[in-house]
Design a protein that fits this description.
alpha+beta; 2 domains; two-stranded antiparallel ribbon; 16 strands
Length: 486
């Protein structure tokens, strides 16, 4: 009996998430939310495909029907068709007439460059389009409208330094039409806006019904013996405050090359369970290559956490990712992170180790100002304790929508399955968990005041384990959050 009780005590000390001061360490409560703050994950395209404007097919009289041979032999007719199609953004007509115009005797090479660049720009092939417009300016530097289009394409292609140089030249040239100079000034402001320091502040109330991340199983059966958990090891709830301060910035080094960084400071303060108060600081430094359709980044990351006012963990690692707009409505992404997690408390040192996280995903832009996103999740933690090391595989699905009446909604679900290595010492069984995370957020533009955006949120994590007495748990959080961009 004494040996059994000692075994139970040792097993619970290694396995039960009972308190910050002993036992298994708490999981990061921030993992209850998806990583939706990453700007690269939901980056909006700078351009959308142009389509023929309404009425492009029929405005007044029906145009005469012409054969390809007639268009090829009469460049003036082709030029009229091209100019009309450009005004109407009728890309299908341009794509059909341009090859015929190229074959016409005495065609204008500059018009060929201009139409070719417009078509390539509409297709998202900005690099080739820019080459056509540069060729036009080499032939005639006084083509101000071409210089403006070139500057706009450089801006869309994330070549901010080159775009700024062209816009400055347009703005500071007196002979340029006033409307082009005014637009150039507007674009210069947008370039500065995209590279400025962004700051966001969040504060709110949160109610957590399981701050100690405990199982709600009251009884523990081992070797035929039944033990009753004390109140301290049952789920405890508390009301508290949630707060965050976020900074991010990216600077164009030239061409498509950028340097970016972001810093997040956040914390939780519980009114009745202050032993579970958390603070965290995460810093990311990244080199980034990006153009109008794709982006690639990589760089180091640092993470520090405090629990009950004491430094709890520190992590050093790296993150990398790639994303591309496959079409104006489809985006594919791949994000990965590795870090070495280290616990400051020597008693928890064996819970430290390497953490790998990979998330491929797809995003679909839907009509009605909505975004649908889905992906896979693969995570591996190789820790000092064999039975705490695991591999997790999962999937996620979510939708984000802004309604016409000003309502903003977000719904997100993630499913996962963890398989742990080795046998649990207490139950002589290999641990397996099924996990689900749910996120719901709702806000409304009419509720904004003084630039502050209020929102209501719900978070839930549910873990179903084959060792339910210790590892199965449900955590629910209810949030009222206020956010302001400075």
């Amino acid at each position: 009996m004494v040996l059994l009780l000692l075994a139970c005590r040792a097993g619970l000390a290694q396995s039960a998430p009972s308190s910050p001061s002993g036992g298994r360490p708490l999981e990061d409560s921030r993992l209850l939310s998806p990583d939706l703050e990453d700007r690269q994950r939901f980056r909006e395209p700078d351009t959308a495909p142009g389509r023929a404007r309404p009425g492009a097919e029929d405005q007044g009289e029906r145009p005469p029907e012409l054969t390809d041979e007639q268009v090829r032999r009469h460049p003036r007719i082709a030029e009229i068709i091209i100019n009309t199609a450009l005004q109407r953004r009728d890309w299908n007509t341009l794509a059909r007439v341009l090859p015929l115009y190229r074959q016409a005797p005495g065609h204008d090479p500059l018009l060929v460059h201009y139409v070719s660049g417009a078509l390539l720009r509409q297709q998202g092939r900005h690099g080739q389009a820019i080459a056509h417009y540069r060729a036009m300016l080499e032939a005639d530097p006084a083509l101000d409208y071409v210089r403006f289009d070139l500057a706009a394409m450089l801006f869309e292609n994330r070549q901010y330094r080159q775009a700024r140089g062209q816009f400055l030249r347009i703005r500071d040239t007196p002979r340029v039409a006033e409307n082009f100079r005014a637009l150039a000034e507007e674009f210069l402001g947008r370039i500065q806006q995209r590279q400025r320091l962004n700051t966001r502040v969040r504060v709110g109330l949160v109610h957590n019904d399981n701050v100690n991340q405990a199982s709600d199983e009251r009884y523990l059966t081992i070797g035929g013996w039944v033990f009753v958990k004390n109140r301290e090891n049952m789920p405890r709830d508390s009301l508290g405050t949630d707060y965050s301060l976020l900074f991010d910035q990216e600077r164009n080094l030239g061409g498509h090359h950028f340097l970016s960084w972001d810093l997040k400071l956040d914390g939780l303060h519980y009114f009745s369970e202050q032993a579970f108060n958390e603070r965290a600081a995460t810093l990311n430094l990244q080199y980034k290559w990006q153009d109008s359709r794709s982006w690639l980044y990589a760089g180091p990351m640092l993470d520090w956490r405090w629990l009950d006012g004491e430094r709890y963990t520190e992590a050093l690692g790296a993150s990398a990712g790639y994303g591309r707009w496959l079409s104006p409505r489809w985006q594919a992404t791949l994000h990965g992170r590795w870090f070495d997690k280290d616990y400051v408390d020597d008693g928890l040192a064996d819970f430290g180790g390497d953490v790998f996280h990979v998330t491929p995903g797809l995003l679909r832009v839907l009509p009605g100002n909505a975004v649908l996103f889905a992906g896979l999740v693969w995570q591996r933690e190789k820790l000092g304790i064999e039975t705490e090391s695991f591999t997790q595989r999962g999937a996620n699905l979510g939708i984000k929508k802004q309604w016409r009446n000003g309502l903003d909604t977000l719904a997100y679900v993630q499913w996962g399955k963890r398989e742990y290595r080795g046998e649990n010492a207490l139950f002589a069984k290999q641990r397996r968990d099924r996990r689900a995370n749910v996120v719901l957020d709702i806000g409304h533009s009419r509720l904004r005041f003084w630039g502050i955006e209020p929102s209501l949120g719900f978070r839930m994590e549910k873990v179903d384990s084959n060792l339910p007495e210790i590892y199965s748990r449900t955590i629910r959080q209810y949030l009222l959050t206020f956010e302001k961009r400075l």
